[in-house]
Structure prediction request, 648 residues.
Amino acid sequence: MVTRLLIAASLLCVWGAAAAAQQAQAPARQPGLQWNEDQIRKVAHHVRAGRKLIPKSWPNGARVAVCLSFDPDNFSIQLNRGDSNPVGVSVGEYAPFTGIPRLIRLFDKHDIPISWYIPAVAAMLHPDMIAAIKKRPRDEVAIHGWIHENPMTLNDPEEEHRLISQSLDLLEKQWGRRPVGNRNPSWTMSPYTIDLLLKSGLLYDTSLQAMDAPHEVLVDGRPTGLIELPVNWIVDDAPMIGPTSALPSPKLIFETFKDDFDVAYAEGTLFMLTMHPHLSTQRSRIKYLEDLIVYMKSKPGVWFATGEEIARYIQKEFGLQTSTR
Amino acid sequence: MRHTLCLIAGLSALCIAGAAAQQPPRDDQPGRRWSEAELRQASNHVRAGRKLTPRSWPNGARVAVALTFTLNNTANNIALGDSAVVQLTGGEFGAVAGLPRVLDLLDRHNVPATFFIAPTAAIVDPQMIPDILKRKRHEIGTLGWSDENPLALSASEEDALLTKTIDYLTKATGRRPVGGRGPSDQVSLSTLRLMKEKGFLYDSSLMAMDEPYELVLDGTPSGMVELPVSRYLDDRPTLSAARFGPSAMPSPELVFEVYRDDFDVAYEEGTLYLLTLHPHLIGMRSRITYLDDLIRYIKSKPNVWFATAEEIARYVREQGPKT
Prediction:
């Protein structure tokens, strides 16, 4: 265990340095240039995509599984920094006051379930969110960090474990069921995260980006049974349609989402869309979200499901079981 | 994402520095250790209270439309002591080219607007306030003394600047301002309390909803009205010129499509549509005609109430909420 922690800790330092290299300031060290093949593999192979988990068909012969997911981060990110700035708090409160009620009206109208990945502190400070979600029996609540922390910079497996356990406890208390899924905040993981998710008994993760089809997660080459429902920044509203994001035209971005869905449909895999209830619910955005839903519903054989429903179906189809080492 | 990279970069620096100097690394995620009481305390200074959308707007109108203009021009450069000549002319554009164009457009449509003016900008270009007042339809509100960043000031510094600002605008306009917008698009933990103490009716800086609401300060309903802004209805994030701002999507056609789509839902929901524009951006030749088209579009709908922020704030405070 100690050796493993030491390896993980050294990997973390190396990865941290690699990420620092992307910062424009001082020309960063490039330690990877000196690594031998073993060292290169050790870093790159710690967490990898295993076999694809695409069932022969989805339930009731559906061609594609669609998971529409929302991350109500509210103002947890800034609170974790110790920042009380009122303008930032107000931006975060848009979700519980305006975004989520508008979203629920839309999804009720179309009778589609939602997977919610909720930082525990956001749920703590706005308990109305899960109270409203509970009225929708098919919706799923899953974890998204304690306070949208960055586990990479924590570099502390015990602290990370504590935060994961606390998050599961708090969401279980509010929702009435223990979550089985995880989405890491900012899609940032430490080298310890996957092991901790397994230790916490989770069924699936949705943070990795190695393919766009469901797959099994390998840790140091070992199949873990953990199901990955992969995400991608391209099918996420945050990098694109926030007011200062790369292309704040909802029309153009939802066109991208639709094009992405078309290929998922043709390939018969998974369309996992990540959205935020302070972004895609804005008055200028919501109609494009509805257009996308209407478009997907117009195709035969689309299974709208939660991450949990998709993962459970895959688990059964492939006879998977999660295992810690 | 950028934030994440910064954090990661910070960590690796800590890794290296920590190993070298054995100094305790600075914890940049203190919130994860806070208790529930501490989390509540840290986030409770300024919060959104009850919604204040009235059952109906004056004369049975469906929606209230506030055209607001932030007249900062070069005020923030001056606050920062920045005397770079070319940048100052970029702000000057707001006073000598943008504002006259905006005022003419508002005249042609005969609609009122609200101008949030930093006194420093008025000192630099003293013709602006008389030009606005001549129209007899528009409101003037505060924007700090010099569009300064209030997060960098102490409460007493802010207090002194707000007093100076109120005095200046009262003298220049003949009326005490009743509303304001946080300078540099920010409010500090003291800003709104100070505004309330000085009898302000409303603020227009926050974004918790897209309809009017009551501000709750340190857990107590303040009686002050928030007329929320929206960065989606603000020309600065998208329409700046690339070297001077974020300019995420400098296509007026695409941006005004967003403004129109947003209005459609405001109209349907019967709440508030509040645009936040800057004469030095929207007053450019390639942008002003889109504003013209948008106003024409809004006017083509029945039962739209164009009003100043003050008129809207007074109305919602008198009417109370619909529920």
